[in-house]
Design a protein that fits this description.
267 residues; alpha+beta; globular; single chain; seven-stranded mixed beta sheet; 19 strands; Metallo-beta-lactamase, Chain A
Amino acid sequence: MHYICVTCGTQFAASDEPPAHCPVCEDERQYVGWQGQQWTTLERLQQDFHNVIKPVEPDLTGIGTHPSFAIGQRALLVQSPSGNVLWDCVSLLDEPTVAAVRALGGIAAIAISHAHYYAAMVEWAHTFEAPIYIHTDDRQWVMRPDHAVQFWEGETMSLGAGLSLIRCGGHFAGGQVLHWAAGAAGKGVLLTGDILTVVSDRRYVSFMYSYPNLIPLPAVAVRRIAAAVEPYPFDRIYGAWWDRIIASDAKAAVIRSADRYIAAIGE
């Protein structure tokens, strides 16, 4: 049985009994649920949840679970001439979702911003026969090792057709974002998860070591994130949840957000 942590949504390697601990939740960036460590399975999720699949912009489709499960992020499917890329992941995969994704062209590759959104990535990879690209600095957080997981090194990696992974670090050492050059009608899109998180005032992003536990990042880490994305043109940012979008002038938003953050915390 591949057990899934109820608090973070991570699927674990096969075991006869639920794991004793969830290292992802016990890390100081996350937390063990207020009711204690709890586990579920994909089969149970399929009984009580379903995925909402809807277009976000041309060639970009959101996939999110309803009712909200675990952290509640939604994935994004980028349709590309070189093959579709699933950005981030959710824990639920069922037959209606598989049919809908296949109707959109399937999945050629999966890339995930950081460990909190690994979810059931191996289930998705096996179903669509797609590799998963994760930065090697986050290798320790893969709770279900599998041949589909491909660890990459360095600062950038091309996925073809104007799709580039950028290692930003910060929230996690291997935290990565996806630049989609063709997005926003050719003005460029940055898919960020919460490596750069879109805040409630959608004119800004922010940067944290731990969001639920309110542990900030130091100025040097924020500068590194801003510098990592600076070479890329992008007018729009999609964060980790449905409405967390900076619809335009997103590159300027990153610059002013980094400046504001550093001014607030000091050097």
